[in-house]
Design goal:
With 482 residues, the chain is mainly β. It is 1% helix and 53% strand. Strands 20, 21, 22, 23, 24, 25, 26, 27, 28, 29, 30, 31 and 32 form a 13-stranded antiparallel β-sheet that branches. It has a four-stranded antiparallel β-sheet with strand order 1-2-3-4, with no helix packed on it. Strands 5-6-7-8 form a four-stranded antiparallel β-sheet, with no helix packed on it. It is an enzyme of class 3 (hydrolase).
């Protein structure tokens, strides 16, 4: 297979008109003996790829083959992997769309497969978990997530379900079933039912710092992964006060995995139809991994995983060049001032795969600042990461939003601490991954091409320190296309 094997994994190169089945998505991460096994959906089957560092990846291999149109698992959907008494269990979703509305049949059923080596799997035909129509609706019944729950002393299975009654497209809920032997499952409770979303897809539940976190994805408005927090597994689960997402509107189906020391959110960054910046977002895309951090108030932040950051170890030249406004200082301390409007300085040339980082400090009253990405000298083309201080947010904007283009901006809320923020940008092909302190925002830029990196300010003055532009020491040609 040809695809991206460097950080933003995907088994297939993206191309205009790419069929739905060729995309990959819904990564199901499992850590075992020093290796992350990333199971994922691809061509209506389940494949897997292995990595030790989220930087480089092995060759993908088939895990579960989908069935025929008459089989319950005509299309295979999301699930989870765990180990019990030397056997690996993979609970997954069996989709058969032709069963919809057919009496005594189900469109979605929880199924499972067994393995002793994580590579060779055999479907367990004796396990067939249909929607529990006593308590839940008869359609949405998928994405089983199984884990050992120390707090209640049983295995828990989270299931994407809907309440039997409720407002249209607002009955999504998270059902929990429990087992002591992973063979017999009984209903425990409805863990979360806010009457807000169509469904809660690809959920996860884990502990950090003495609290429980329930994550889920939904497609009610855009691709999004959200989370809730509680003091105990049984809840109640509450919405974090300021921000309940891990990334922007294109980060989907993220599930967590831990190596015993750190915990990561493993999801995918959506691609756009036709490889165009104006195209609608489609299901599937590239692997996107964030390391979770715990804030003082118990909410979750994210950061670039350490091994990914350390893979960028070869400095590239920084040569501050005044473009608009005034520029002073040198590469160690870059000052840009434009009290009457917009000013920017070009700093260097981006590579196909590279990382840029800096610490931006701004004078009180400065309206906005940030990065000029893939920019040319006269700004005929550019992307812009905006830090909007008074509004408490970051945004990703593009040059071609003119003449009635009403597409939304990619944006995230940020609580700026003082008048300083650390900014990191990872570029890989058309992907732009940004961290502003512990907040992430990922977007794509298809139609501009590689350009320069710069900094800007609006109605004020900024100072940039600890500025670096780095590339990886080695990157095979097969790594280059994101």
């Amino acid at each position: 297979m040809k695809g991206n094997r460097n950080i933003f994994y995907t088994p297939e190169n993206q191309y205009p008109g790419m069929p739905h089945g060729e995309m990959c998505g819904d990564f199901m991460p499992f850590f075992w003996q020093g290796t992350f096994y990333l199971f994922y959906l691809y061509k209506y089957c389940v494949y897997a790829v292995e990595t030790k560092d989220f930087v480089s990846f092995g060759e993908p291999y088939l895990v579960l083959q989908n069935g025929s149109p008459e089989d319950q698992d005509w299309h295979i959907g999301t699930g989870s992997v765990f180990e019990h008494e030397g056997i690996f269990y993979f609970h997954y979703t069996g989709f058969c769309e032709s069963n919809h509305g057919v009496e005594e049949k189900n469109e979605q059923v929880v199924m499972r497969a067994l393995s002793r080596d994580l590579k060779t799997w055999e479907k367990d035909l004796s396990f067939f978990f249909k929607p529990d129509a006593r308590y839940y609706g008869n359609l949405h019944w998928r994405d089983p997530h199984v884990f050992w729950n120390e707090e209640i002393g049983k295995y828990c299975m989270l299931i994407t379900a809907t309440e039997k009654e409720g407002a249209y497209l607002r009955s999504g809920c998270t059902a929990v079933y429990v087992s002591e032997d992973v063979r017999n499952w009984e209903r425990y409770k409805t863990l979360y039912a806010p009457r807000t979303f169509i469904t809660h897809e690809c959920h996860d539940c884990f502990q950090m710092g003495g609290k429980w976190y329930l994550s889920f994805s939904n497609y009610s408005r855009w691709w999004e992964t959200r989370y809730r927090m509680a003091d105990a597994f049984d809840g109640p689960y509450k919405v974090p006060e300021k921000d309940d997402m891990f990334d922007g509107r294109e980060y989907y189906a993220a599930k967590s995995v831990t190596d015993g020391e750190k915990r990561y959110m493993v999801g995918w960054e959506s691609i756009r139809e036709g490889c165009k910046d104006s195209g609608r977002h489609l299901w599937g895309g590239n692997l996107l991994v964030h390391e979770l951090t715990l804030r003082a108030d118990g909410s979750l932040g994210v950061k670039l995983p350490e091994k990914i950051e350390k893979s960028f170890n070869t400095p590239l030249s920084i040569w501050p060049t005044e473009r608009q406004g005034s520029l002073s200082g040198d590469a160690d301390k870059i000052e840009v001032c434009a009290e009457d409007g917009f000013g920017w300085a070009e700093l260097g040339r981006l590579k196909e795969i590279c990382m840029f980082q800096t610490t931006i400090t701004w004078e009180e009253g400065t309206r906005a600042a940030g990065l000029m990405i893939h920019a040319d000298a006269d700004l005929k083309k550019w992307c812009q990461l905006r830090l909007e201080f008074k509004h408490g947010r970051i945004e990703m904007d593009r040059y071609n939003r003119v003449d009635g283009d009403q597409q939304y901006l990619d944006e995230r809320p940020v609580t700026f601490k003082g008048n300083s923020a650390q900014v990191k940008l990872v570029v890989s092909g058309n992907i732009m991954l940004v961290y502003v302190d512990d907040v992430a925002l990922t977007a794509r830029c298809y139609e501009i091409g590689v350009g320069s990196i710069g900094i800007f300010t609006e109605y004020g003055k900024i100072v940039c320190t600890d500025t670096q532009l780095l590339e990886q020491e080695k990157c095979e040609k097969t790594c280059a296309t994101a």
